[in-house]
Model the fold of this input.
Amino acid sequence: MGVCNVPSPRLVCAEYFASKVVVEATLVKVRSVSPKENPEYALAHVYTLRVNRLIRGHVTEVFQVYEGNDSGRADFDWKTGRKYLLFLFYSAAEKSWALDGCGNSGPFDHAKSVLEQIDAIQKQNGDGIIHGVVSDQTYAAPFPDVHVEARGTQGLYKATTNSKGEFEIKVPPGRYTVRAAKTGRSFYTAEFSYENPEHLEIEPGGCVQVQFVAR
Done:
């Protein structure tokens, strides 16, 4: 199983705007990376893909994706000749593209719903949305009625968490800092929050996804 950020599941809108590249591509080659002392064990895999359709960002026609053989790997199979829809970020450490194994990347023939959401996202403009959840440190118990503020270049915007600890704040494009507060309690950014609520940037029609936990 992958070690996933929270809140879960990853929203398509939030992953779309967090990704440097969103692309439909065909897998053309798989290469294993193994240690010299144990060539039978794969430390990682490098996937070479060819672009069919570029949806967001810029990437060369043939590119590579690095995936460690660890708890962060994707939960789908990679098969040569198969098409994939990929949400990518650049890994400087590996000098290669990488993906969130708990995100919305996957085989193209299973991506109908995700593609429909992307199509809707691309037609939007104007305000964006800050999505979030407030919970205890185990992420199991939500905190309702928490006051949440987003303060930024376009002003101050507020919301209150619902019974599931969830909130949404509609804001104009710009940069924001988000804080959560409740009498008698204090909250901080969860270790695995997708985006950092201290430094959020909202694109026109965009969204982000954050998590707070109680101290």
Observations:
- Helices lie at 12-18, 112-123.
